[in-house]
Design a protein that fits this description.
The protein has 517 residues and is of the alpha+beta class. It has five domains: 54 residues; 100 residues, no CATH class; 87 residues; 98 residues, GMP Synthetase, Chain A, domain 3 (2-Layer Sandwich); 99 residues, no CATH class. It is built from eight helices and 25 strands. The strands form six sheets. It has a seven-stranded mixed sheet with strand order 8-14-10-11-12-13-9, with no helix packed on it. A six-stranded antiparallel sheet has the order 4-5-7-2-16-15, with no helix packed on it. It starts with 12 loop residues before the first strand and ends with a strand.
Length: 517
């Protein structure tokens, strides 16, 4: 990507999050059984004092009042619960979160299989090409769990070419351009019914993100978000349910074509995903033999992974959907404001080159750069870590931005910087609680991890001692805290760590000690 931005120049503007007041769960106060019973008894006393006075707990009237209070309590709770499920801020059922997403056009990201780069090597060169049919599967074990890896040839951006074979060319002994992706390739065959809006349920799941290919009578059809209204085309829509099982939806011959009656529909896709494929470099060495035309013996070959497995992802959770939906709705799938660019970047995902974890957009403030936007990004590397994005991800993001940006804007995609901060916390505790120190250490660590969660941090945010203490101060048994931050810059350590607009703070080593008084 082009590197023509002066980082030291102060920007004229930065993307900023919109601070909306939080929506809390509907209040269930005074709608419980005892409150309802008390209010009804008080109402009867005030309005029917001369007609009714039998308020003995064992009386039939009190039994009827309690039955009414029980029904009212249950109905009130269910009504509040149902209403809470209508709002993204308070939804608790993942199925309802998926429905809310579908309502506004947001597609939750499905599972992603971890990818790693491999070599395929021979003991000696051949006089003819060795063609290895893909997917070439390798079953192995990582962290005590079995995983399945499938090998494919890689393109220039390390994306798998699913329908090509792996070739070790004649005269060569090594092919280092092989990518392994965790998961399993599946092919389902269906018959076209000729019905409007035919829907097919894929047999296996969870279906890996961006892995589906559909052929009707041998012709490849195109996946779209919405059918083309102007002219029916060979298109289909793919959707997930909340368990990431997949569904294929065809059109009605006005918007999207209908597969003809008795046509053969083949759906090829991959299942799996998650972090199990995040293997370390050099973990697997797999040897096997291949038959080569013209040779009356098998050719031995060895496959090794020379990079770590990366980018494995289990799919969006309800928290991910809750975080993504409001900015997605504001952006309306176009990039006009700085926040639009930031939102599109942070919700961008690739199948084998990772996904953006944090981004910020900057409007330059020097020279004739009034329409140049610097988009700083970092990729996710686990739950809390960030890293520099791969070139393949930057290229794919640039193509996505080009389709949605203002045509006068020029976008320069840059690497953000991670500022690692070691955190030392000393807790002052009464000596009576010394035997519980392990429990308190874990509680403090949990609060610190929550404090540093990615959803709470943006590029340019400073780290203050008082903010961290405020998050952990409600552990009642701990009397006081002393916090110190350490970075590679002694001048930017102590009780305050500051950042530049393209930097984001991430925790390094967290040390928790106790002083007993």
């Amino acid at each position: 990507m082009p590197d023509n931005c002066l980082r030291d120049a102060a920007p004229i503007g930065e993307s900023e999050l919109i601070k909306n007041p939080p929506i809390f769960n509907l209040n269930y106060t005074s709608q419980d059984f005892w409150s309802l019973k008390t209010r009804l008894v008080d109402y009867i006393k005030q309005n029917f004092e001369e007609d009714f006075s039998d308020f003995v707990e064992s009386s039939l009237a009190i039994m009827l009042i309690e039955n009414w209070a029980f029904l009212a309590d249950t109905l009130s709770f269910k009504m509040d619960q149902i209403v809470n499920e209508l709002f993204i801020d308070t939804v608790t059922e993942v199925e309802n979160a998926f429905r809310l997403s579908k309502l506004v056009g947001l597609k939750p990201v499905g599972p992603i299989g971890a990818a790693s780069m491999w070599t395929g090597s021979l003991t000696s060169p051949l006089t003819t090409d060795l063609s290895i049919i893909t997917p070439f599967a390798i079953n192995t074990v990582s962290d005590g769990s079995p995983i399945r890896l499938e090998l494919f040839p890689a393109d220039e951006n390390n994306n798998p070419i699913y329908e090509d074979n792996i070739i070790v060319s004649a005269g060569d002994v090594v092919n280092a351009n092989i990518v392994a992706v965790e998961g399993n390739t599946v092919q389902d065959t269906f018959v076209g019914s000729g019905a409007v809006g035919q829907t097919l349920s894929l047999v296996e799941g969870p279906v890996i993100f961006d892995s589906l290919r559909v052929d009707v009578d041998g012709v490849r059809w195109t996946e779209v978000d919405y059918f083309t209204d102007s002219n029916p085309r060979r298109e289909y829509i793919f959707e997930y349910d909340s368990d990431f099982n997949g569904f294929i939806i065809f059109g009605n011959n006005r918007a999207g074509m209908i597969p003809s009656t008795s046509s053969e529909i083949k759906a090829t896709y991959r299942t799996g995903g998650g972090t199990s494929g995040n293997i370390i470099a050099g973990l697997v060495e797999y040897q096997t033999n291949f038959s080569v035309p013209g040779f009356n013996y098998s050719i031995p070959a060895t496959f090794r992974n020379y990079t770590n497995g990366k980018y494995g992802f289990a799919g969006d959770t309800i928290e991910d959907i809750r975080r993504k939906l409001p900015p997605y709705l504001r952006t309306q799938d176009r990039a006009v404001t700085g926040l639009d660019y930031k939102t599109i970047a942070e919700q961008f995902v690739t199948s084998t080159n990772g996904q953006v974890g944090k981004a910020t957009s900057i409007l330059r403030n020097h020279g004739c750069a009034g329409n140049i936007i610097d988009l700083y990004i970092l990729s996710r590397a686990g739950e809390v870590a960030l890293e520099e994005s791969s070139e393949g991800l930057k290229i794919a993001l640039n193509e996505e931005i080009d389709e949605k940006k203002m045509f006068t804007d020029f976008v320069c995609i840059r690497d953000g910087d991670v500022l690692l901060v070691d955190v030392a916390i000393d807790c002052s505790v009464d000596k009576f609680y010394k035997k519980f120190v392990d429990e308190y250490r874990q509680r403090v660590l949990n609060r610190v991890n929550e404090f540093f969660s990615l959803s709470r941090w943006e590029m340019g945010d400073d780290l203050k001692e008082t903010n961290l203490i405020k998050d952990i101060a409600d552990i009642k048994q701990i009397d006081s805290y002393s916090v110190e931050f350490t970075t590679d810059d002694d001048a930017n350590s102590g009780s305050l760590v500051t950042t530049k607009y393209y930097e984001i703070i991430r925790p390094g080593t967290i040390t928790i000690t106790f002083t007993f008084e």
